[in-house]
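User: Fold this; tokens only.

Assistant: Input:
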Amino acid sequence: MAIIKAPNPKYNGVSASLTFVNGQAETDNKWLIQWFKEQGYEVSEEEKKGTKKATEKAAE
């Protein structure tokens, strides 16, 4: 599961089929995760072997 964070932390709405509440949405869709990274959104993904999260931000 990945948490997508919008640039606006107060954003509530739908973007690319994900519903954002208070600037955050969740998805398992690898295509959407990659798309949001490419758009510059902060994406936190859980590692497969544990509960640690790796945070990545797409380089522009």
